[in-house]
Automatic annotation (TrEMBL):
It holds the Pfam family Chor_lyase. Keywords: Cytoplasm, Lyase, Pyruvate, Ubiquinone biosynthesis. The lineage of its organism: Bacteria, Pseudomonadati, Pseudomonadota, Gammaproteobacteria, Vibrionales. Pathway: Cofactor biosynthesis; ubiquinone biosynthesis. One of its GO terms (cellular component) is cytosol. GO terms for molecular function: chorismate lyase activity. This is Probable chorismate pyruvate-lyase. The gene is ubiC. Removes the pyruvyl group from chorismate, with concomitant aromatization of the ring, to provide 4-hydroxybenzoate (4HB) for the ubiquinone pathway. HAMAP family: UbiC.
Length: 180
């Protein structure tokens, strides 16, 4: 599992993010995935028999280890960093890194620390006071072989967190592009 973290965590942290308006996503097969405003986990689960999450790491990090943009999106609080792999039928589909500020981990949201292998989207999008904004996308591959990623801020009861997701080659995001 740590090979996934070693490979994908630096990629997602060094991504050059662009606003969704910079890309013509609406006309592409992957655009619907990148623009998904609800739970990505719920959507992925519809494309497989067994949807699972494996926690690769969960640690507290100082806000000094966050990029300037990350601090702008989630504030100056230290964060819980959660890195997971989402699997569909035992195939790695998405690497995700979530930054949850300590200020978010209070009240009803303190349970976010104990999610374990429960998808974050299942918890966040069960709450009627949840939303997604600040959506950005990146291509971490090439023009010929894109490896799409997205980053967005999730809000639950007006408390922020930042989620970055890298769609891996076996992900259904690329199914139409592979002719499936």
């Amino acid at each position: 599992m740590s090979e996934f973290k070693q490979l994908y965590s630096p990629l997602i942290q060094s991504a050059k993010w662009y606003s969704v308006q910079s890309w013509a996503l609406e006309q592409t097969s992957h655009g619907a995935w990148l623009l998904e405003s609800e739970s990505l986990s719920r959507r992925l689960a519809q494309y497989c028999q067994h949807f699972t999450v494996t926690v690769l790491a969960q640690t507290m990090i100082s806000n000094s280890h966050l990029s300037v943009m990350e601090r702008q999106l989630v504030g100056d609080s230290d964060c819980l960093e959660r890195e997971v792999m989402l699997y569909g039928d035992q195939q790695p589909w998405v690497f995700a890194r979530t930054l949850i500020p300590m200020t978010t981990l209070s009240g009803e949201e303190q349970d976010l620390v104990d999610l374990g292998d429960i998808p974050l989207g299942y918890r966040v999008f069960n709450d009627k006071n949840s939303r997604r904004d600040a959506l950005e996308v990146a291509n971490l591959g090439t023009q010929q072989q894109p490896r799409w990623a997205r980053r967005s801020r999730l809000w639950i009861n007006e408390k922020p967190m930042l989620v970055a997701e890298l769609f891996l080659i076996e992900s259904p995001v690329y199914a139409k592009e592979k002719g499936c």
